[in-house]
């Protein structure tokens, strides 16, 4: 198949969406398919990139590191026709999403869409949350998704949200895969502990994400005093950059735990596996994740996870919590972290981890996506006219 993936976000912009697209592209190509990325221009992008089409763009409002296309409909359609694309797969509900939808309609080919982001958790970034409301998110999501031939939901939570928005299109729950070959429990000569001046046996709790309000890193920091009472040599290593860093550093200072918390800033993708590998537990208190690739990356590096409980994370920790601990409330984080720091891994866990990782590998991801392409190409769109037009 010749597949066109349309996204406002792609490398060198680092995000879960970029990583998901790259994994899908490489896995599909490994199956023999041809994949072309249609995305935005980026000042940091290389001059020439194979099979990547960049359309004129500008920085997007409060997200200065993200971009939105300002033109390119004609160019995208012309190139798509030259490439003789078989299917359009959009990954955004904004500029490239609408361009991809237009190309699919003009070419008469299937339009598949992946709904990545739980936008209601990000409204505070736009005019302090005073301009856009949840009803606006519902309207945009309903309008866009009900015009697609099929929608990929990375988790049951996303599907439930879309059905709540009155999205009637065919929805397939397909968890985003991970290129497991890039997340092996190998240090590759880069000793993170030495770099951070930590002993070989010193407990490391790893947080790895954008430093922003919706990631709820503050809750992890607030759990550290209780952790340190039982494990005074434990260290919280916070990897990532973002708008909340100053606020988080201030909280660390006020709690008098400066020596126990390390902020590393952003790290390049090839450095990340070393942090997972040398950590004893990976923690995320975020409730905004539609999928949570970092959980999978941690598991691939044989690192236990502590996360908020939901339908998706329940599938990651094993039938009896062998691979990690889930919490419902922020106040439970400290005890969950201590439980994992004090646990001893048994050989039986390896088989459970292998089964979980096989289900979310890049290869499985690509096979499921291709199967969904075919399903959507052969079914009649289930949206009635009055439902399709029901936007506001």
From TrEMBL:
SUPFAM superfamilies: UDP-Glycosyltransferase/glycogen phosphorylase
Short name of one Pfam family: Glyco_transf_4
This protein's name: Glycosyltransferase family 4 protein
Domain Glycosyltransferase subfamily 4-like N-terminal: 14-181
GO MF terms, alphabetically ordered: hexosyltransferase activity
Coiled-coil regions listed in the entry: none
InterPro entries xref list: Glyco_trans_1, Glyco_trans_4-like_N, Glycosyltransferase_grp1
Residue intervals of the Glycosyl transferase family domain: 191-348
């Amino acid at each position: 198949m010749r597949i066109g993936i349309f996204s406002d976000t792609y490398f060198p912009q680092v995000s879960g969406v970029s990583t998901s697209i790259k994994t899908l592209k490489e896995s599909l190509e490994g199956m023999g398919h041809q994949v072309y990325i249609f995305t935005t221009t980026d000042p940091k992008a290389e001059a020439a990139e194979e099979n990547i089409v960049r359309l004129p763009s500008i920085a997007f409002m409060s997200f200065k590191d993200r971009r939105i296309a300002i033109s390119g409909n004609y160019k995208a359609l012309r190139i798509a026709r030259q490439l003789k694309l078989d299917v359009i797969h959009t990954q955004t509900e904004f500029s490239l999403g609408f361009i991809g939808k237009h190309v699919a309609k003009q070419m008469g080919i299937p339009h598949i869409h992946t709904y990545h982001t739980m936008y209601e958790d990000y409204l505070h970034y736009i005019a302090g949350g005073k301009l856009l409301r949840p009803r606006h998110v519902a309207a945009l999501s309903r309008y866009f998704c009900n015009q697609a031939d099929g929608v990929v939901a990375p988790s049951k939570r996303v599907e439930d949200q879309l059905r709540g928005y009155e999205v009637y299109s065919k929805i397939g729950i397909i968890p985003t895969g991970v290129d497991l070959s890039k997340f092996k429990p190998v240090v590759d000569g880069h000793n993170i502990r030495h770099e951070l001046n930590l002993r070989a046996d010193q407990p490391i709790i790893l947080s790895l994400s954008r430093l922003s309000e919706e990631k709820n890193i503050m809750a992890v920091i607030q759990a550290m005093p209780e952790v340190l009472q039982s494990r005074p040599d434990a260290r919280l290593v916070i990897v990532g950059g973002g708008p909340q860093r100053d606020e988080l550093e201030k909280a660390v200072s006020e709690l008098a735990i400066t020596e126990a918390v390390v902020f590393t800033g952003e790290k390049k993708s090839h450095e990340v596996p070393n942090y997972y590998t040398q950590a004893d537990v990976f923690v995320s208190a975020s409730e905004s994740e539609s999928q949570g690739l970092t959980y999978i990356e941690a598991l691939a590096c044989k690192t236990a996870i502590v996360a908020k409980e939901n339908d998706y994370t329940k599938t990651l920790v094993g039938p009896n919590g062998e691979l990690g601990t889930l919490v419902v409330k922020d106040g439970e984080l400290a005890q969950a972290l201590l439980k994992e720091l004090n646990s001893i891994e048994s050989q039986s866990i390896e088989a459970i981890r292998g089964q979980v990782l096989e289900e979310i590998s890049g290869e499985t991801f690509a096979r499921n996506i291709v199967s969904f392409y075919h399903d959507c190409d052969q079914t009649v769109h289930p949206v009635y006219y009055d439902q399709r037009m029901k936007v506001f």
